[in-house]
UniProtKB/TrEMBL annotation:
Name of the molecule in the record: Uncharacterized protein
Keywords: Membrane, Transmembrane, Transmembrane helix
Transmembrane segments: 43-65
Organism: Caenorhabditis japonica
Length: 114
C-alpha cells in the first residue's frame, strides 16, 4: 500500500503541476479583446465636442486676424478737393486754411477710410 499511496500522491502532485502550467500558459496565450492600440481608442461624443470647439477656436482666430488686416489698412491722401498734396502735413495745413475735403486712394474701404 505504501507504494500505491506514494504513486497516487505523486500522480496527484504531477496533475496539480500540469494544471498550474496549463493555467499559466492560458494566461500568457489568451487573446485580449483589443487586437491593437487603435481598437482601444474610440471616438465618443466628448471627442466630437472637443473637435468642434477646436474648429470654432481656429475659425475665430483666423477671422480676427483677417479683420485686423483689413481694418487697419491706411488710405493714402492724394489731394484736397482739386489740389494735389504731398503727405499728411501738407494736407493738414491746407485743410486748416481752406476747409477742403480730402481725396483718398485706397484698395478697399476700411475703418480708416470712414
Amino acid at each position: 500500500m505504501s507504494t500505491s499511496t506514494a504513486t497516487a500522491s505523486e500522480e496527484d502532485e504531477n496533475f496539480i503541476e500540469d494544471v498550474e502550467e496549463e493555467k499559466a500558459l492560458e494566461v500568457i496565450v489568451s487573446k485580449s479583446k483589443y487586437a491593437s492600440l487603435d481598437d482601444l481608442v474610440e471616438l465618443r461624443w466628448y471627442c466630437m465636442l472637443v473637435l468642434i470647439m477646436a474648429e470654432i477656436t481656429a475659425f475665430t482666430a483666423l477671422a480676427s486676424v483677417t479683420m485686423m488686416v483689413f481694418a487697419g489698412a491706411n488710405p493714402n491722401v492724394v489731394g484736397c478737393d482739386n489740389q494735389v498734396v504731398n503727405g499728411c502735413h501738407e494736407f493738414n495745413s491746407l485743410k486748416n486754411k481752406s476747409g477742403c475735403t480730402p481725396v483718398l486712394e485706397y484698395q478697399f474701404e476700411s475703418v480708416q477710410v470712414e
